[in-house]
Structure formats: C-alpha cells, structure tokens
C-alpha cells in the first residue's frame, strides 16, 4: 500500500511551499492530499525578496483545490505531515480541527515537515517544546517562546521533525525529510 502524506494549508499559503513538496513527494511515489478549513479552491501567494524592502513582498500566486476539509481528515490514514508557510499559519493555528490533526501526528511521533511560518501551527499545539527547529528568521522569538531552540540554517532535523526557513531552502528541506520518510514510511 502506498503511504499517504497530508499537507495542511489554506488561503495565503506560499505557493512554492505547498506545490514543491506536493510535487516532490508524488514524484517519490507517495500519495499526497491537501487539507484546508474547507474543500474549495485555495488562493496561494508568492513571497519574494526585493532590494529596498525591509521584509518580503507578497503577490498573488497559484490556485489549487483542497482535497479535504480538516474535519474530514483521519490522521491515522497518513504516514506523515507537511506544514507550509506563508500567512496561512497565522489564522489556521486557531482552527480546532487542525489542532486535533497536528496533535495526533506529534502524539504518534510521525514525520512532520514544517517550513517558514508553518511552525506557528506546531507551536500552537505545544509541539516544539525542547526541540531544535528553524523557521523564517523573524520567528526566532516565537520559536523560543514555544520552548524550542532556534537555529538559523537551511534545515534542522530533530527526530521525526524536519524544519526549514523558507522556499530558497527547499532542496535541503526535502532531502532531509525524504531521509526520515524512507526510514519511517518507505514507498514499497
């Protein structure tokens, strides 16, 4: 049976941080589903770094359909979880259905890949306490408040948790996540 991987996201997620792992994991042979607050066409954004700006800029990105609503997700059916960044995690962390999903993955020590602002979700379920992580560098104080040890590097692996700063770090992030997946949930 092909292992299934769940991506949890919503409107204003960073396009590349959803679609790169979606396509890379499918290429590897995994079945990948995208869950959101409801089944609908999601509207992603593009964050870029431009000279003269103190922070990233945001432009409209791709659209993509959600396969499932959070309320429809059975976490037991999934071998791993991917949490993209963008602005979506800022409001998704308040969703009680999503918090149940996240907690289930951490309670069962299944592989979790998080990037950019994605760790705001895992912090909301106390999944970072005592762990080493990275995230978008502006989140360093949030990660420390959540009890994590922040490291400003391309990818950090702490057990089954793999984190990364932002889309420029995709190669390191997916390389480390696939190393974890090949051990914990290999494609047969």
Automatic annotation (TrEMBL):
SUPFAM superfamilies: Class I glutamine amidotransferase-like
CDD domains listed in its UniProt record: GATase1_PfpI_1
Pfam families: DJ-1_PfpI (PF01965)
Positions of the DJ-1/PfpI domain: 4-178
Alphabetized PANTHER family for the sequence: DJ-1 PROTEIN, DJ-1_THIJ_PFPI FAMILY PROTEIN
Sequence similarity: Belongs to the peptidase C56 family.
Protein name: DJ-1/PfpI family protein
Organism: Streptomyces tropicalis
């Amino acid at each position: 049976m092909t292992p299934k991987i769940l991506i949890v996201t919503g409107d204003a997620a960073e396009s590349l941080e959803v679609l790169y792992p979606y396509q890379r994991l499918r290429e590897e042979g995994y079945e990948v589903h995208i869950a959101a607050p409801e089944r609908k066409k999601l509207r992603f954004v593009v964050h870029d770094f431009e000279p003269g700006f103190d922070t990233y800029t945001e432009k409209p990105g791709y659209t993509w359909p959600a396969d499932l609503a959070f309320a429809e997700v059975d976490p037991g059916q999934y071998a791993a979880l991917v949490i993209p960044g963008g602005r979506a995690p800022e409001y998704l962390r308040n969703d009680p259905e999503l918090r149940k999903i996240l907690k289930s993955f951490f309670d069962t020590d299944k592989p979790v890949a998080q990037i950019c602002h994605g760790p705001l979700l895992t912090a909301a379920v106390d999944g970072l306490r005592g762990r080493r992580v990275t995230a978008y560098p502006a989140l360093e104080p949030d990660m420390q408040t959540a009890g994590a040890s922040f490291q400003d590097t391309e990818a950090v692996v702490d057990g089954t948790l793999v984190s990364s700063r932002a889309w420029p770090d995709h190669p390191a992030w997916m390389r480390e996540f696939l190393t974890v997946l090949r051990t914990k949930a290999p494609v047969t």
